[in-house]
Amino acid sequence: MYSSLVSLLGWAWSWDELIPLQKTIGTTDALAFSLEWQILGPFQIGTREATWGADPLEYFGGFRALEYNGTARYRSSLATNGTVTWSTQLADVSGGCPFNAQANLTVRFPDVEWSFLQSVYGWAALQWQAWARGSIGVTGANVKTIALYTDNVLEFYVDGIHYFGGDMYAIRRAPLVLHLAPGDHRIDIRVIRDVRAMGAVGEPDAEIRLEAAESQKGPSAQNNPGGLVVEERSLLMPDMVNRSLLASSLGSMTVRNEGRRWIKIQQIISTEVSNPDNGSLLPHKTG
CA 202, 168, 24 angle in degrees (round to 5)? Predict the structure, then answer.
């Protein structure tokens, strides 16, 4: 069954060129990532250029301005004939449940002669970038507040909105908070294979893991307390000295505003020593 994303994007390809973003949704009120992802790449990139752009597709208005076209070709110094084209790859998806969906995508380019490139240019030849396009589907009648975790992702777009500074090293402490209406929402991901972080042994694949977790405290929750989420598992405390004293007076815990309005932090008090502090937490922000 073709995804409704086809009609939303207004694709104009003939039926033999159109590649739908397939989904697996199991219930009437669920989250699910697309099973099939559209890939464009690989393109060369320097080992310290990822955060500075250096995306050759910006010449065409960026990947976000392009649509799948199996006959289009783009220049790349990594390809055997000097050009690359679109392809599709399948993600390992789980979901179809009301509160959580995951997608694990391994981006690989088996047609590229990586061994030859490495023999000429060394390990730097295994540093590359590409783009992947998929979607997340929201079913049901209401807007859902989603915490989107983007492991090993630096830059991405959701419904054309740019987000830079994802979770490149999969620390998973500050997910992106989204408020998604029912329907399909396009995700464009810039895939970066950092050879310094991922190594130069074996196939130069790139692993991406996405997780969408519906908030139980956001605007769409029935027991909405205002959108404040306290990540209890994020608690960090100093070491104990002599079994009685803390090595420092400082500790940390992640709190996140998943609502649409500001939350005023009026007071933070220790259970033993009163030390009030105050501040503000912007919508969609983590502190």
Answer: 80
Mean of the per-residue pLDDT values of the chain: 81
pLDDT given at position 202? 80
Residues 264 and 241: their CA atoms lie apart, in Å, by 35
Q: What is the pLDDT of residues 175-209, one digit of tens each?
A: 999 999 999 999 999 999 988 777 777 889 999 99
**Residues linked to residue 281 through DSSP beta bridges, in sequence order:** 263
Instruction: Give the whole-angstrom CA distance, residue 162 versus residue 150.
Output: 14
Structure-block tokens of residue 83: 């050009």
- Rg (the chain; Cα; Å): 22
Ranges of beta strands (E only) in the chain are 31-33, 36-44, 74-75, 83-84, 86-90, 92-94, 100-107, 128-138, 144-151, 155-158, 161-164, 176-180, 183-193, 206-214, 228-236, 240-241, 245-246, 252-257, 263-265, 279-281
pTM of the model: 0.79
Q: Which residues does residue 151 pair with via DSSP β-bridges, in sequence order? A: 167, 209
Average pLDDT of span 213-226: 60
Question: pLDDT at residue 20 above 50?
Answer: no
Nearest to 22 by CA among 150, 133, 164: 133
Compute the Cα dihedral for 139, 140, 141, 145 and give only its sign. Answer: negative
Residue 42 preceded by cis peptide, ω within 30:
yes
Q: What is the model's pLDDT at position 279? A: 58
235-279 pLDDT, tens per residue?
888 988 887 788 888 888 888 888 888 888 888 777 665 455 555
DSSP characters over 101-112: EEEEEEE--TTS
